[in-house]
Every structure is written in structure tokens, then in C-alpha cells.
Amino acid sequence: MTKKLTVAQALILFLKNQYVVRDGIENPFFAGCFGIFGHGNVVGLGEALKENKDFKYYQTRNEQAMVHAAAAFSKMKNRLQTFACTTSIGPGATNMITAAASATINRIPVLLLPGDYFSKRTASPLLQQTEYAFTQDMSANDCFKPVSKYWDRINRPEQLVSALLESMRVLTSPSETGVVTLALPHDVQAEAFDYPSELFEKRCWQIQRNLPDATLIEKAVNKIKKASNPMIVAGGGSIYSGAENVIKEFSEKHGIPVTETFAGKGTLHYSNPFNLGGIGATGTKGANEIANNSDLVIGIGTRYGDFTTASKSIWQNKNVDFININVAEFDAFKNSAIPLQGDARETLKIISQKLESHSTDEGYIEKIKILNKEWDDIVSKIYRTEDPKRPVQSELIGAVNEFMDEHDVVLCAAGSAPGDLHKLWRTKNSKGFHLEYGNSCMGYEIPGGLGVKMADPSREVYVICGDASYLMLPSDIITSIQEGYKITIILINNEGYASIGGLSQSVGGEGFGTHFKYRNKKTGELDGDFLPVDLAKNAESLGAKVIKTEGIDEFNNALVEAKKNNKTTVIYVETIRDRKLSGYAYAWWEVPVPEVSNSREVSKAREDYEKNKKNQKPYIRPQ
Q: Which residue segment(s) compose the domain that 101 sits in?
């Protein structure tokens, strides 16, 4: 049996019949399709989406933003559901590349369907087609190859069958997932083919919980038994696996503290005495202190980014060993670890059973509990407002944290706020803290907030966004209003790139090029008066309800009012740009400083840089 369909029709019919199942729970893998129609997709995919109204189409305003929204949705769903995203040929397609990189870096599945040139080449060069003198078999869509986990171009209708099955294999793979790009020449989209009917039957993809090699598990158990100061680094894979309760039981039973990456924050409730919070360049005092002396690191679902490892300087014990539990072989082998390639939840259960009643000594456990309590006291002090009329960013974060319900979500991506949130946020559930920090992509915040709200409309979503990130991608405020997904945006005006400005200051750069100022006609530099941009009016013009606040009391009142609103609300607040929270023990992040400079400040920063470089470790001990 066959069905005669166009490539576009067959594609959409296939997608809406794809399901995933894990632990006996089944759900459709695609929640619909984001898209902006244009030259290259309006006729082919546009017609197919119009005819398949049960595969919902969402209209957005920016191609990069819609991929961010899709990734945020999928992250919130523990990668068990996602969106397709379609664009035109040319700028519509290339606008997705930045967000595609973010999704792939963070191991989040999203399907991209950019339009492409005529496969038949009957009218080349097309409007928006990039030409190459050395080949006619390449387009701007080839730029997606470095940021995709699977890439294909459908030049003939029959190629769609194998491409779709390979796409689903990658999208649903816990170890290989990321962006999949299917470039669709728009003449091919409209061509018909007799497809096998079986292609469109319901297909369930089993999300496997693989287990590591038994010999390696025994080696890991022996390492844990011999360790005096073991610790856990919980990454995003801890949450995607649904291992939160198992990690809690494991840490408490065996006396091992838990530290958290950006993606893993929320693995344990902040009040759990074994939770030491964020680790690394933006880590807490206790987490970094424990890490500095640890002789065994158990990495669970982490890729060991440079913020987590403080640029490979956080573990100073010369005898430190690593055990990595990860579904991806690539990550499991990092730092010369014992590589336990398998599902986090099920692997930890086996290790715990084999450890039986083994635990670290009482002195170590008591130290962990003291550090947990000490940090909570520090956070309480930082949350208190010193100047009620001009609160700083950390105090605003505290106000939001204390106002939010346990079920609600805070979201951020770029600037200095992620570092403050990593240290200070009191996480109450594993889906209440949502940061895109693999790519730290400015502009993720508002479309990301939309994606989170679409994934779980029952939660209030609070987006913390600096003015620079806001100016990157504010347009999906419109989409949130169009679709009725209310988010609350905390818009902090720093009048420039405050985070990178602080970094520039720290290395002697004096914040060059990071303020939003007029060009001074006398000096020729950007050091004139601040630009008179009214971000509050801008947000209002996009349809949001806007509340301008001055001081912490007005800010707290605005949070109450925003929660009562039924549409997207922006709380606008100004803060002191240069008063940011400093790092704690061993919180270094490598940023190379010029070796030669006429600036005394730069030369001093270079001295500090070279001193910190000496603390970097290769972590290549024998297993």
C-alpha cells in the first residue's frame, strides 16, 4: 500500500505520528511547528501545515527566537517532546543558526526545516540563493552542519524516507540528541511520490535506560569506598534522566555532598543539608571549598564546561579521581574518568546497592552540613536590601526568589544575572530553575520564557533579562500575547553590556565599548551621555503590560500585581550597574589577558592571570 503525497505533506504526516515512550509513559514527540513563511516554504510546507490542522502551527516574529522557544520547551519536557521549526530560504534560514548552536551545545532536540534552492536548478540563481563559483551543490544551509547532530538535504522525494527515520533516531537518542536539520529545496517540497503507507503509521521510539559495563561499575564502587572526600557534580543529565530522588537518597545514604552545574541546579532542594549549590567560577563558598580538597569527583550528566571546572582549576588535590555517569561516551571519558556510560538514575541505583551501608565519616558529613547552613545565612544577608531606593541586582533576585511559589520558574541566559542566580537562587524543584548557559545566548530569555510557559502553562514564569539581552529579541512578547501564554519579564536596565563591561574592567579594559552612550564628537569615542532609550515604552508598544518601579517596595508590589495579570507583564527596574556579586573561593574563569600592553591595569591583570594559570590541572591520572 502506498500514499501519493508531496514531500511536504508526507513530512508533516510523518511527524504527527511520532511518539516516544519512557518508563511506560507515552506522548507525541512533536508539539507542533513554529514558523515564519516566506520564499522557500510558504507554498510547500505552508500548504501541508494548513491541511494538517491537528499538527499545530505557531506564528512567530524572529527565526532565531522560535528555535530558542522550541529548545526551552524541550528542556522543560526533559527532552521528551519538541517542535519543528520552518523558515524560508536565505536570511530566514540563516537566522536560525545561532539558536541551533545553543540547542546542540545544550544537548536539546529541535528539528529545523529551512527552505533551500531549486534542486533542479531550472531558475538558478534564485532570489536569496547564495552562489559559489566552485560548486552548485551547496547553499547557505550548509552552514548548519557544524551546529547540527544530523544534517541532510532532500534532493529527491524518495530520499525523505531514510532521512526522516535517521532524524528521529538522533532526536530521540539520549546520547546523540541535538539539532537535526533537513534542508528542503522548495521545488522538491511540492513534488509528489508514492510513499509506503507504513511510514505514516504510529511509531513509538523507546527512550532507553542503558546500563554501563559491570566491570567498570565494580571499579567505581571500589573507588568510592576508598575515597575520603568524595563529591557529586550534578549536571543537566541528572534532571533529564529523572534521577533527582535517587541522587538525594544516594548522597544522604553514603554521605556525599552534591554540587550543581547551571543545567543541574535544582537536582536537590536548596535546604537539603547535602546540597552545596553551584560549583566553579560562579560557585558557592562551600561547594568550591569541598571541591578544592576532594579526592573523588562523581560527575552525573555533566559535560564539565569551563564555568563548572573554574577553567580546570577547581580540583587541586593531586590525587583526585573522576567517575563519570553519562549517556554520552564523549562526556563519560572526560578527565580520564572511569566511564560509566549509561542512564544516571539506573546506574546510581546499582552503585548504591553495591555500596550497601558504606558512608563517609561523621566529620566529613558534619562539615558538609555546616557549609550548607553557612551558605544559606550568606544568601539571607545578600537578599537584604541595603538601599531600598536603589536595589542592586542580587537584591532584586532575592525579592523574586522569596515571592515565587515553589512550582514557578525563573529563567535567564546571559549577562551577570546567571552567575548571581547560580550562587544565590534557592531552588525548590528541578524545573524551577531554567538557564541557557551552554551558549549563554543573549536574546534567549523572552522566547525561552514563552517555550517554558507552553511546556507547562500551570507555572508562573519569571524571565530575568538585562537591557542588552532585551534589545536582542523582544519581538516574541507579541507571540506570547497572541497565543495567550503569559510570562513576567523582570527588565533590568544596566544601560549597556554590564556583565562583559565588568569583565573588561577586571582585566584592565576599562569597560571599553560596553556602555550605551552617544559618540562624543570631541573625543570620537562612545563616552558621551547615555542614550535616551525608553525600554518600558518599547515593551508596552509590543502589547505587554508594563510596570515601572523605583525602589524595592515598588518592585515587590509590582510582583504582586504582575501575578494577578492574565497577559505578559514587564516589570521595569533600574539598578546600579557596577555593583555585582563577587566570586567566592577558587572561583576563577580563564580569560586571556594581553601579554604586552601600555596599560598598567592590563599588565597587573596579566600577572594575576599567569598566577591563576598555575592552578590549572590536566586531570589525566591513570584510571
A: 2-206
The pTM score is 0.95
Q: Identify any residues that bridge with 35 across adjacent strands, giving them in sequence order.
A: 59, 86
Helix segments in 356-413, DSSP class H: 362-383, 393-403
398: domain CATH number is 3.40.50.970
Residue 36: partners with Cβ closer than 8 Å, 6 or more residues away: 59, 60, 61, 62, 63, 66, 86, 87, 88, 92
From the list 589, 507, 611, 622, the residue with the least C-alpha distance to 314 is 589
Cell of 456: 507547562
Q: Could you give the CA distance from residue 175 to residue 557 in angstroms, rounded to a whole number?
A: 45
Q: 7-15 and 159-171 helices cross at what angle (nearest 10)?
A: 30
Q: Is beta strand 569-574 parallel, antiparallel or unpaired with respect to 545-548?
A: parallel
- Provide the domain count of the chain: 3
Cα gap 335→312, rounded to integer Å: 10
Do residues 438 and 494 touch, judged by C-beta distance below 8 A? Answer: no
CA distance 124 to 112: 24
Please return the burial class of 200, using the count of CB atoms within 10 Å of its CB with bins 0-12, 13-18 and 19+.
middle
- Angle formed at CA 444 by CA 477 and CA 140, multiple of 5 degrees: 105
Tell me the average pLDDT of the chain: 94
Is residue 613 domain-resident? no
Mean pLDDT of the 457-476 span: 94
Q: How many CB atoms lie within 10 A of CB 459?
A: 18
Task: Kindly state whether residues 35 and 172 are assigned to the same domain.
Answer: yes
H helix or E strand, kind and range, residue 20: strand 18-22
State the Cα angle at 516 between 605 and 576, rounded to 5°.
70
CATH of the domain at 257: 3.40.50.1220
- Asked if 615 and 522 touch (Cβ cutoff 8 Å), the reply is no
Q: Are 76 and 22 a contacting pair, CB within 8 Å?
A: no
Q: For residue 258, what is its C-alpha cell?
A: 552534591
pLDDT digits (tens, 9 = 90+) for 41-99: 999 999 999 999 999 999 999 999 999 999 999 999 999 999 999 999 999 999 999 99
Residues 189 and 6 sit within 8 Å (Cβ to Cβ): yes
- Distance (Å, rounded) from C-alpha 473 to C-alpha 446? 7
Which residues, 6+ apart, have CB-to-CB distance to 401 below 8 Å? Answer: 383, 410, 424, 425, 426
